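Handout, section B. The chain below has 621 residues.
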Amino acid sequence: MSVFHTAATEARERNNQAEPKIRSRRAAGELAANTRERARQACIQEGSHVEDVMAMLPDAALAVDRSHLPELLNRMLKGSRGTHRSLPWRTLLIGMVVNAMCERIATLANVQATLLSIARHSNATAVEYGLVRQGPRWNGALVTYRMIEDAYNTLTDALDDSGIPDIDPATGEILGPPVTLGRFCDMLLDGTVPDDIDVTTGHWAVDGTMYESWGRKCSTGTREAVTAFVNGDTTAPVGTYRDGYPKLGPDGRPQHTTDPDAREGHLPAKNMEEAKSFNGYDIELAVATRPHHPSRRIGQPDVPDLPLFVRSMRVVPAGFNTGVAGRMLLESLDDRGLPIESVQADMIYNGALTEVWADVIRHRFNADYITKLRAEQYRVIVRWTGGLEPREVLEVDGGFFTNALPTGLRELPHYGYNLTTLDKIALAAEYDKRLPYAFAPMEKVREDGSQRYRGPALTGRIRCPNTPRSMRGSASIPLASCVRGDECSCGSTITVLADWAPRIRQPRLFGTSEWNSDVNRRVQVESFNGLLFGQDQRMDRGYIRMFGLAKNTVLIAAAVAATNLKRLKRWRQLKAAIERIHTANGTRAHRRRSRARSNVHVRDVSPDEDPRTPIGAPDTG
């Protein structure tokens, strides 16, 4: 081997040995650069998160203080088994609400990160909100995950048992009813009510939404099949994905997930998706709505006089009786002294027993019940009044009509889900044609379920030959097809019995334009449901990763309270923007009808100008 070849071989070997070192140094440099970039982005993100948290903190702290929950929990739930329980209840509640206002997943780790962001703002803030453990042993250590977890478990365990008694420890005097899960939600929501805005109108939109549990699905099967399987029937049609499932819960219903309180419910078809079942909870909400305006047109947008605001909520296992859940909301409002004048509810509540839901609204709360109809509730039934002279009355879609109602108006198209605004206006016009033939209620529903109605010939809506007084009316009033001398109910005063359309009897005739303006107020609660699952929160599966009704309810209540605060803040910003626009313009629209033409002229008139000055008149000032 030549000397040249030997030297080349040695050089190549030295290069091969040095190349990994070069590559490693290059990789180390790139790694360091990437680490610095990630650290820089983390600092930017952390700084922005601190700013977001501090922006939300004042509203959340004020709401928690107004709820009076911290002082009650401090009085009744005192940790005495170690310093890890030293987290103040006020700090825990504020952390959960602020975390929800920042639209973060409701985990205790995120709650800790939110509280640490508050502590990083300043030492004074950390001490004010109890985020620094005091004492020589701790030397200013920040809040830990264990502190948050222990306080959260202590709270939820106390709420899950029988509630927290509100008792004065010194005297033993009972200061109020026990703080159950429902009262905890009400107190937290009451803390979000502002002092300068009246969000209590007496009119409530009630609805429920579904939340899927984090628990893993371990089995399938109906209640009957699971009961047979638990009793030893191995041929029962059930599906098992994990040993020990399916099984029956304490309430006698099947438990298909590792979450002991989650139950199976039905998710209706929507958003181009088929109907399906889910395991989790139902969130029942009561949202304040505006009073009824009969002149309000279909599709007319709401004036922002009232923010989206929840005053009562309940969380129940999925598949729970909707009538009982809705009644719990109304009882909560009534117990706190809030007026109940009308209730707008979804058609799903019509499936509840009359004595559980509809009668409770009419008799116990003396309120109006407004709802939509299910497909099977569109019906025509012939009724006969009592008394010495029975009269024939038609029950059509929950309303009561004289037998002079034309045949073409007795079965009209249904209100579907996919109707446009123009379709609703056209359909409401068809239902309005029923108005002249309808009986008008004379009073609210009585205790026994009966109600007095006056015939259309007596109210002047129709002219009937069998009611001579009505024939003196204007020729523009519709003339009934009744024959003089024949029996008809146009001029009768009837008593509607308790079993006549008890679930769907409403103060305004179903399907008409006035009914549409009434029932459309329910869009408030539907909009709030959309906020929880889209714009303000992300309450899809995995938003809460806890098992049990109490643990889920506490975090859901914090999310609803946070949404209340965010909607109130944005509503204030919208009102302020509208006022600024009006102030900047300094003008108002003036409508003037021309004599020669019927079109409407709209022009801006300054506050100092006489609005009666004709357009184009010379300036005399």
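Note. The chain has a mean pLDDT of 81. Compare this with the example in section A.
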